[in-house]
Amino acid sequence: MIKERLISALIASLFMVIFRPFGLDHFGWMRWPLLTGACIIITIACVGGEYIVRYVLGMPHAPERGMKYLIRRNVCFQLCNMALFVLPMMLYLDRFVNNAQVDNHLSWTLFAKLLLVFLGVSLIISMYWKNVYWKRHYAKELEAAWHINGMLAERQRSASANIPEQKPKAEIPITISGTTKEHVTFLPSAFLYAASEGNYVQIYHLVDGKMVSTMIRTTIKDVETAFADTGIIRCHRAYIINPKHVTKVVSRSSGFMVELQPSGTLIPVSKTYTAAIRQRLANP
Known about the structure:
Elements: H1 2-19, H2 31-56, H3 67-96, H4 108-160, E1 174-177, E2 183-186, E3 191-197, E4 200-207, E5 210-216, H5 220-226, E6 233-236, E7 239-241, E8 246-252, E9 255-260, E10 265-269, H6 271-282
Antiparallel strand pairs: 1-2, 3-4, 3-7, 4-5, 6-7, 8-9, 9-10
Helix pairs in contact: 1-2, 1-4, 2-3, 3-4
């Protein structure tokens, strides 16, 4: 994490060098030594804030603790970083960055300027790291998708070669009933997916190898309950899928999706269910 803080300090220092705020252009060649001093303060603030959060507040960088913990940790870091930046920089500007054209003496105006600079630079840095972490996350998603697709392709080859992975179990037909008189009955292996559409659920299943659909007035939760202990699982707040019909996973910038055959339909997988879907596909 120290490396990330040093990169953040470099971004903030580049901001100071490019824009030279607080009238630094009025100091001729002296602006470069003054900028060097400002960059040192920025670096100390970034690294010092990380050390305070980690060792004084006892909050190590631990993504496994969840998003709430990371947000709380980042807020603590930003507060420490702001204190270590604004106050020393005010004293530095008051002591060294003053002449006939520039007035940087201690004042609430100077404090407000420094606070605005800090907030602006923090926004730029957060956008940079958001882009970096998004690319890393997307790369991991692609890697996981390639791994799962490899396993799915191997299972398809085994099936086409008539090499069963395990002896199929006897199935009990499932009946999905609505709040009115409509209902539909089929074997769990024939089920493809279900999609919630307002007060109705569209059920897609196979009949003689062809996909058909039936609309039932019910909730996706009730459909999920009907499929208990069948291996059919929820993948999204509006979708239920049969993992046995998944032939490929697709990782896109918008999220993780699965492809069902024989329809070729792409079904979205929400973050809540991503881990469960991956585990089920890897260990059917």
